[in-house]
Design a protein that fits this description.
globular; single chain
Length: 417
């Protein structure tokens, strides 16, 4: 494998990228329990109105990412992964300070837009993993990124809930500090993963365009079914940022601390799944069946969430839903096997554009449904309606995966080993 990161350096690079993603997730995680409540505070305390505005925030975040992620992917393919990750961390640190000082809803909204434009490290980290790991080990590598997410969501929301209980602005200052520490960390220790001879000769303006990045996927028809799974599954995943915090309050009376504790529990389960189970499950079942198994567990878990009348019923669904995490790295591994090294960044950027495209519409669906079914005109009060919609979407994704995803040829793994 032609990479500047080999042998022991590869293990060190994976550790570096793990910590980089972890700190970024921590920064995002600490504001999750407080951002909807801060929005609620700005709109006068009405939960239904806050749900709609939270949906607007999510819509804008994804719309901006739809335009920015292909550019970031093209930049990473042209100039390397390291500078894109560093600029992302620096931009996020400055933006969290901006949001901490926001005096009203409008300025908080501007801060979220800036945050969307600068949050590139997750997409670039996926390309980084593809750079430094052989094809047969990529599911495990992507699982490591999932573990960083899980660990970040153990500590992040827990800290955010405690700090938010003191002051709604405090988690933003804490997040700013984390992002700037991450920038300093990466500046001194994060190695470049993409050698110059593997980079694109010039900045690819065609694929840097939002739909240009999506159109690039037409060059790889063999991954269309998997890309559809990524799109549908991520559409369903937007139910969390769109509704969870306000849903937990409306359904069970959970405030910042309680929501933080639950999200921390989700993070614990995610780490267990990503660190302990993904490698074993993918090895035992193969990437295709691991993908289907994960989506089936997500379908059942969201169904339990949507129908849970009591808080303990919701918590009972957490271990089942956590197994959904197996699907993402299995899907990523199947996709990266069929894409050349010099296109990994742009493919990841294109898929991130699709995810952002899903995020443009998903908040309107989830937040709108939630806001309506807890509002005065609802035919029946059903706070969990958004999770029921997400469960249906994951069932559709499982069908698409069953129909179109195929195991990677054995020769592909053998040749690249």
């Amino acid at each position: 494998m032609n990479s500047p990161v080999i042998g022991k350096q590869r293990q060190a690079a994976l550790a570096f990228i793990f910590i980089t993603v972890l700190i970024d997730v921590l920064a995002f995680g600490v504001i999750i329990p407080v951002l909807p409540h801060l929005v609620q505070q700005f709109v006068g305390g009405d939960t239904s109105t806050a749900a709609y505005w939270t949906g607007v925030f999510s819509f804008a975040f994804s719309a901006v990412q739809f335009f920015s992620t292909p550019i970031q992917g093209a930049l990473a393919d042209r100039y390397g992964r390291r500078p894109v990750i560093l600029l992302s961390c620096l931009g996020l640190g400055a933006d969290f300070i901006f949001m901490a000082l926001a005096p009203n809803l409008a300025w908080l909204f501007v801060g979220r837009i800036i945050s969307a434009a600068t949050s590139a490290s997750f997409t670039t980290a996926n390309a980084y993993i593809a750079d430094v790991t052989p094809p047969e080990q990529r599911a495990k590598g992507f699982g490591m990124i999932g573990a960083a997410f899980g660990l970040g969501f153990i500590v992040g929301p827990l800290i955010g809930g405690v700090l938010g209980d003191i002051d709604h602005r405090l988690p933003f200052w804490f997040a700013a500090g984390l992002a700037l520490v991450n920038f300093c960390y990466g500046l001194f220790v994060l190695p470049e993963s993409l050698p110059k001879d593997k980079r694109t000769a010039a900045f690819d303006w065609h694929h840097a365009k939002p739909m240009g990045g999506v159109k690039m996927l037409r060059e790889y028809p063999q991954i269309w079914g998997l890309v559809a799974v990524v799109f549908i599954a991520n559409f369903a995943h937007y139910v969390y940022p769109s509704t969870f915090v306000l849903f937990a309050d409306a359904a069970y009376g959970w405030k910042e601390k309680e929501a933080g504790y639950v999200l921390a529990a989700v993070g614990v389960l995610s780490v267990i799944v990503n660190v302990v189970l993904i490698g074993k499950v993918v090895k035992a079942l193969g990437e295709r069946r691991a993908l289907l198994f994960g989506l089936a567990c997500g379908t059942v878990g969201f169904l339990i969430y949507g129908l849970a009348a009591k808080g303990w019923m919701f918590l009972a669904g957490l271990p089942i839903s956590a197994l959904w995490a197996i699907a993402a790295p299995a899907t990523q591994a199947l996709i990266t096997r069929q894409v050349p090294p010099d296109a990994q960044g742009r493919i990841q950027g294109s898929m991130s554009s699709l995810i952002s495209l899903a995020g443009i519409f998903a908040p309107a669906v989830f937040a709108g449904a939630f806001g309506f079914f807890i509002g005065p005109h609802a035919p029946v009060r059903l706070p969990g309606v958004a999770f029921l919609i997400a469960s249906l979407l994951l069932a559709i994704a499982a069908f698409v995966g069953w129909r179109y995803a195929r195991p990677a040829p054995v020769a592909a793994a053998t040749d690249a080993a």
